[in-house]
Amino acid sequence: MRRLATGLGLCALVISQVCLPVWANATDPVKALVEKIETRYKKTTDLTAEFTQTTTVQGFTKALKSAGRVYMKRPGKLRWDYLEPSLEQIFVDHERVQFYVPEHKQVLTGRLSKMADSQAPLQLLQGVDRLDKHYLVTAAPDGARGAGGLPLLLLTPLAGGPDQPRVVVEVDPKSYLLRRVELRASSGTVSNFVFNKIRTNTGLKKDLFVFTVPADVEVIAAPTLAGP
Length: 228
Fold this sequence. Notes:
Layout: H1 2-15, H2 29-42, E1 46-56, E2 64-73, E3 77-84, E4 88-93, E5 96-101, E6 106-111, H3 122-126, E7 135-139, E8 153-157, E9 166-171, E10 178-184, E11 190-200, E12 218-221
Parallel strand pairs: 6-12
Antiparallel strand pairs: 1-2, 1-11, 2-3, 3-4, 4-5, 5-6, 7-8, 8-9, 9-10, 10-11
């Protein structure tokens, strides 16, 4: 289930338009890049991409590798399919989430904002279109740059405590879509997602995002966060 919980941390970064803070300095390269990202995602009604995920867990010498495909349709619909090394799926419809693990014959259901196993990346999941309310967005402190020389963007939580992950994103210099996302958890776990073969505005049907629970599968309520 680690792949599913980590995958949720990426969902919002491909499911919604990116809306980041405004900087006073109009020549700020980070501000200019963010504006281009915003413009691109505002024009994106649906998106399909293949992804690879490499996760390094502290204490383990071998990285976990997986791959699959992600589908997004605005507003609020996402389908995240892990295809390798085994099938796992996430279906998101606004607040409703369904985790399907065929190998275990189980479906975990819950509300996105209340799922305990996704506590760390919840801010990303809950409001990417209001990211400035949750994160300070800056260039990576080491000055690292991605493809085309564009600066990597560091998202630092404004609140939420030390358990919130550090998030670094890399933008494609031609499309201004997100091509790589790194989640670095306080536990030391680091997950890297690389997106490729990205296609936008292909007219994805709503049926693609509908999951019907098989007859022989157990439905379980996902662990939830404690109330305020």
